[in-house]
Amino acid sequence: MTTGRRTQRWLLIALLALLSGCGVKGDLYLPDRDAAADRQAAEP
After folding, report:
1. C-alpha separations of 33 from 13, 36, 41 in Å
2. How many domains does the chain have?
């Protein structure tokens, strides 16, 4: 019972981390896309 509950908690934490860290992962894995977006936002 405790192991199942623990795995459930870890799954929830992992999901929350993925959802909240999506932007961070984008920065890590797709720096070019973010750089281009920043350039477009900076230019009028």
Report:
1. 28, 5, 12
2. 1
